[in-house]
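During the no-cost extension, the postdoctoral fellow (Dr. R.K.) reprocessed legacy sequence entries with the updated structure-token encoder. One reprocessed record is reproduced below for audit purposes.
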Amino acid sequence: MPQTLDAAAVRTWCSLALEALGREREEIDAINVYPVADGDTGTNLYLTVESAAQAVEAVFSAHETERSAPAPADVVRAMAHGALIGARGNSGTILAQLLRGMAERLGAGDHLADALRRAAGLAREAVAHPVEGTILTVATAAADAAEASPHDPVRAAYEGARAALDATPGQLAVLDRAGVVDAGGRGLLAVLGALVEAVTGEAPSAPGPTHVHPPVAAVAAAGGEPCADGEPAFEVIYLLEADDAAVARLRARLDGLGDSLVVVGGDGLWNVHVHVDDAGAAVEAGVEAGRPYRIRITHFDSAAETSREQVQRAVVVVVPGEGLADLCAEAGATTVLARPGEPPASGELVDAIRRAHAREVVLLPNSAELRHTAAAAAEQARTEGVRVALIPTRAAVQGIAALAVHEPDRRFDEDVVAMTAAAGATRYAELAVAERQSWTTAGVCQAGDVLGLIDGDVAVIGADLPGTAEAVLDRMLAAGGELVTLILGEDVPEGDAVAERLERHVREGHLAVDTVVYLGGRGASPLLIGVE
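Re-encoded structure tokens follow.
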């Protein structure tokens, strides 16, 4: 029995965990009664692991282009980081911290038993007020069993977790009244079962029933009233860039505002989860501590949401910079911010579609890499009764072109056709800085070179951004064009001067071609170009 995991095993584990949670998501949702009976624990765990799986696949994809194998430490850290940035709900946030603990030890070459012990300890530290009979209890039992069976720690961890899960109704009264085991612990058991299969090649024995006896209280597993008297009204989650000292102060402040407080992460990046009555105060506390983003506020009273009147049509657009998010929001779109190296998961896109609260939604992913993710989100939204049209835009400039011709008063099909045509008529380019020497379709580039990518392929290699951009514009306009769109990132030195130079270059070299400039803001590429 291997005591550590290689890169392929971590990848397999992540994939199998996602499959298992996909199968069991609805069942786990149905037994979710603690800490709030809002029926989403299985979904939250699935979305958390989905984000982890995307991060793992990104590592392997990067190494495939270099024809090398990733190091196990890199893969397990990517899994933990992906879970951190995509963590959802109380249990998803705790699972992210469990994976972080495992990554610390496995990345250092420690044994699985050591990794499970560190994971359980780190998760408990992250929870303001640990409660027994929850996912924390199951994680601790898994670590205890693994340490007691050094020759077969993985199977032992699973069996220890399963026994602890079966005992949770005797530890937590709300579970006993509902006649169910803990939903978060049940999800962790699925993740540990995937680990067994990844390491041994054999699936473990099936877990016991989720319902341990008929409910003896009025609040049943799948039908609890989520916002009972005395319970906080909102769940607030956000990612936070802050130092350790600021986070320590934040914990104390949020602990006074609400309950179910979990703060996970480290090295300057944290995921904050809390249940409060004053959602604004929880966000303000994050602003004082550092820079919160990807803020999600959910009202536990679903009636409040369903009573809000739906609009007929909305546009949901993924954007790579905060400036573009503001621009698209001003145009009436619901936005999803894609940070560098952190593409949104399908769950985030589904959430955005729900936030739009429309009967009809046009979805603009603005990235070829998000095609499958967006398709999955669209399919999920359709099962919830929303009519969704996915326009496969591959760049932000295509999304802006589509949004510019959007007319909500037209028939839905006609609007989608017009937006699709506008996006398809827009060629796109991106300027980026090479991180290392590598082969490209335009030749060999060195670290620090400026790369001009046209329609996704490297077409120009230059020494500076303005000169490379001019060469890219000339190539794109050689085939004609009426409008050039320039989107400058926040980090471009002397951005105003660069924009003026490029506008002048287009005006002097290409008559009758107009130019419009937007600021991409934080997170955007140095320069995006669109030609219509």
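The two ends are 59 Å apart (CA to CA). Confidence is low (pLDDT under 50) at residues 216-229, 302-308. The remaining legacy entries will be reprocessed before the final report is submitted.
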